[in-house]
Amino acid sequence: MEVKAAIAKQEKEEVVIYAHQLDEEVETLQKSIKELLTPQLLSVKKKREQYKVQQKAVVRIYRENRKLIIDTLDGYFESHQALRDMKRILSADFIQISQSELINRRHVQRVKITKTGLVELRLVGERTSYSSRRYLKILKEAL
């Protein structure tokens, strides 16, 4: 395999893989490149102090009272970003389970469907989240 770099006068940077066919090796390469380009640290704040948090330490991200709350293994933080912007910069481990919440699938311990049709997600640290039926298909594919 040959590796080349070229400079283009485009606003948006991109990585293009040319291959004879889309096989498992190419898909693995795509995932690896995407992970390298995804920022691993999130800029968050707690009581007016700025912190950097590893994505893998984030259990869930949700909106509450017009604030974006970052629930981590080490506690709760806030972010100034919108949920949709946060979703764009997060790795593929994060799944949207409702209009106002993302979870890290690596921290899901148990999934249960309730009598009302909601999906109950048990996360690490005795945390519980609920997914609406609207996001059930996405959730099934991701888990």
From TrEMBL:
InterPro entries: LytR-like (IPR046947), LytTR_DNA-bd_dom (IPR007492). Keywords: Cytoplasm, DNA-binding, Transcription, Transcription regulation. It comes from Streptococcus hyointestinalis. Residues 42-143 form the HTH LytTR-type domain. GO terms for molecular function: DNA binding; phosphorelay response regulator activity. SMART domains: LytTR. It comes from the Bacteria. This is Response regulator.
